[in-house]
Amino acid sequence: MQTLKVSANSKPKSVAGALAAIVRETGCAEIxxxxxxxxxxxxxxxxxxxxYVAPNGIDLVTVPAFSEIDIDGEERTAIRFMxxxx
Length: 86
Hints:
By secondary structure, this protein is of the alpha+beta class. It has helices spanning about 10-25, 35-55; strands at about 5, 30-35, 60-70, 75-85. A 4-stranded mixed beta sheet has the order 1-2-4-3. Helix 1 (about 10-25) crosses helix 2.
């Protein structure tokens, strides 16, 4: 499963375009976000993606989960969004 990393500075439309392409090709993807700003951009991107893939008959569902990741030797908590076809 391909993982897209989203930051607070990510453009939701750009992330949505990449996410839509992955979902059309493989049927599922994962988005990883650390921090409130990044989570906000990720949720916007998922909402935009639903509009992009709906004309193709794809109905997306999202499952959020916590994930512990290591950044420069420091444990950080990330939010992971599993995005897949219903």
